[in-house]
Specification:
Blueprint lengths: L10 E10 L2 E7 L4 E5 L6 H11 L16 E8 L5 H6 L7 E8 L5 E5 L2 E3 L1 H11 E5 L4 H4 L1 H10 L4 H33 L1 H13 L7 H12 L1 H16 L5 H18 L4 H27 L6 H21 L4 H67 L6 E13 L2 E10 L7 E2 H4 L2 H18 L4 E5 L7 H14 L5 E4 L3 H4 L4 E10 L2 E8 L2 H13 L5 H11 L1
Helix pairs in contact: 6-13, 7-13, 8-12, 9-11, 10-11, 13-15, 15-16, 18-19
Length: 561
């Protein structure tokens, strides 16, 4: 057995409840070992549990506020090991070995949570508090029925504590690789659907040499060539009219310019107009000269193949505009680059897929080795676990009970290796072994879970364990054994037990009693620590009822020892 010092894990040191249900104000100091809480039915024991469940992050209810004008406050102080500091750092919470967790329910119904006076979300509260407190009630055995809990149980008792951490890291890497592979393969399938068509479009755009194409210039050339003869005729008429003697435009311009010059000599009032005329005359001569130059270069006898070539270029470009719903060469270039990138990506994705497949194969090889080691260790521990828990169940009155760990191979890897797990249970001889979730009865549940918790406490770190009347339905020797078992557990952990059984209450290192009183016309619940004498009287009362007999006192002394 591995003994764990109490200082290695958390312990509740104080519980404070204000304005919650029928509790006006309650303060209780808690100590190590086994603390027992007793009290009459309806005194308020369930209220304490309800308050602690709020600390565990359960939903708050405004109906639980006693005085709706004030907020309700539940607060626990915990002794926390320094090894927990990384968790606090990760959540950006100030670390203190005396950590205080507080839950407030406002009159509006809203609730707030705080750790060391820093506001936290309910998710963080749950994550932290479940490391601190484990509440187990009479019918709360669902954890035992889950595969995850069963694996954690058997791994905690074997040599798998560090091995499972290594395996799960590789398993998560493996899952991410499989996810990435699936995503890339889906992307590749999408690309494959129209890959040929996109390649055709890309070739079509590359053929027209978009980087050197000037559709406007080609269009202009085509118009020029198609109308060359008509253009030449019209230009000839222009030159004729310009150069015609006496009536020609050039002579007329010169005549007007000279006349305006004489007028300007007589009066500067016309100077600006004369200057404008000089400018117009120069522009006119320049235009005529340029027309003559272009006319001289104009080919009248245009070859049909030239026109057809130009027309083909224009038609191709207009067709591309229409196909891609664009209006410019620049837009076509953008589309071409996109198609080119997609085609290159196609090859890149194929390469990436092959690399990921290789990584997956390597990860499978690594996980296979680890999974085999996990399985071998589990098989070694399974028999020891069965023997240990069956011995405990005999102490708890289940003399014929049998428990077996069944491991089965799986086709693929899962979070806990490459196998499944079932805890099989048999309450009485002659009946088949069945999965515990279907074979266990209500009267057996709590005792089986108590035995499981006992084994865990011997080998693993447990949070403060709160047992709520899990001893219901037993008495006599079995009840006494339950009490002894709880006391043994409390040597390695903090155990808080709510019970009606004298045999269990007598084993407490610290005893408390919940009382319900009428104060100022209102019902009030409180809790008080019991002295040795008060503990004796309380146990005697549990044995004999309201009237304590001498026989009950004597029996109480025997139980306390």
């Amino acid at each position: 057995m591995i003994n764990i010092q109490l200082k290695d894990f958390a312990m509740l040191t104080q519980l404070t409840i204000n304005n919650f249900a029928i509790v006006r104000q309650l303060d209780i100091e808690l100590a190590k070992g086994m603390s027992v809480i007793t009290g009459e039915t309806g005194a308020g024991k369930s209220i304490i549990l309800g308050a602690l469940r709020l600390i565990l992050g359960e939903r708050a209810d405004i109906k639980s506020i006693q005085n709706t004008e004030n907020k309700s406050i539940i607060e626990v102080e915990c002794l926390v090991s320094p090894k927990w500091k990384p968790f606090f750092d990760e959540k950006d919470i100030d670390f203190d070995e005396n950590t205080i967790i507080r839950r407030e329910i406002l009159p509006s119904g809203k609730s707030r949570a705080f750790v060391n006076d820093m506001p936290v979300t309910l998710d963080i509260l749950k994550e932290l508090s479940t490391k601190l407190i484990d509440i187990h009630s009479q019918f709360e055995t669902s954890n035992l029925f889950s595969e995850e809990y069963q694996f954690k149980l058997i791994d905690g008792l074997s040599e798998n504590k560090t091995l499972i951490v290594e395996y799960q890291k590789k398993f998560l890497d493996y899952k991410n690789l499989r996810k990435n592979l699936s995503s890339l393969e889906e992307k590749l399938r999408e690309l494959n659907k129209d890959s040929d068509y996109k390649e055709f479009l890309l070739n079509e755009l590359e053929e027209v040499n978009l980087d050197t194409s000037n559709i406007e210039e080609v269009q202009s050339q085509l118009e020029l060539q198609e109308n060359a003869e008509y253009i030449y005729e019209n230009l000839s008429q222009v030159f004729q009219r310009v150069e015609q003697e006496e009536l020609g435009m050039l002579d007329s311009f010169i005549y007007i310019k000279n006349k305006l010059a004489k007028v300007t000599d007589l009066s500067s009032h016309f100077l600006d107009l004369q200057e404008r005329m000089e400018s117009v005359f120069l522009d006119f001569k320049d235009v005529i000269n340029e027309l003559e130059n272009r006319s001289e270069s104009l080919e009248i006898d245009v070859k049909p193949e030239i026109i057809n070539n130009l027309r083909d270029k224009v038609n191709k470009m207009n067709a591309l505009y229409a196909k891609h719903n664009v209006n410019s060469v620049a837009e076509l270039i953008v589309i071409r680059e996109k198609l080119s990138h997609e085609q290159n990506s196609f090859s890149g994705i194929e390469f990436e897929i092959e690399n990921i497949k290789a990584e997956i194969e390597n990860k499978i090889a690594e996980m296979t080795i680890l999974a085999q080691k996990l399985s071998a260790n589990r098989k070694k521990s399974a028999l020891k676990f069965s023997e240990k828990i069956e011995g405990l169940l005999k102490r708890l009155g289940l003399e014929k009970a049998k428990i077996e760990i069944q491991l089965s191979d799986k086709e693929d890897f899962v979070l806990f290796g490459k196998e499944g797990i079932d805890i099989l249970f048999q309450a009485n001889t002659g009946f088949p072994m069945k999965p515990i979730q279907t074979a266990i009865s209500g009267g057996e549940r709590s005792r089986v879970m108590l035995a499981v918790k006992k084994i865990i406490a011997e080998n693993l770190e447990l949070p403060t364990l709160i047992l709520d009347e899990i001893d219901t339905g037993v008495s006599g020797k079995v009840a006494d054994e339950i009490g002894k078992l709880m006391k043994e557990m409390a040597t390695d952990m903090q155990l808080i037990v709510i019970t009606h059984l004298a045999q269990v209450a007598s084993k407490g290192n610290n005893n408390y009693k919940v009382l319900k009183q009428d104060v100022d016309g209102r019902t009030k619940s409180t809790i008080i620590p019991l002295s040795k004498e008060e503990k004796l009287l309380e146990i005697a009362q549990l044995l004999s009822g309201e009237k304590i007999t001498e026989a009950a006192l004597e029996q109480a002394r025997e139980l306390i020892g």
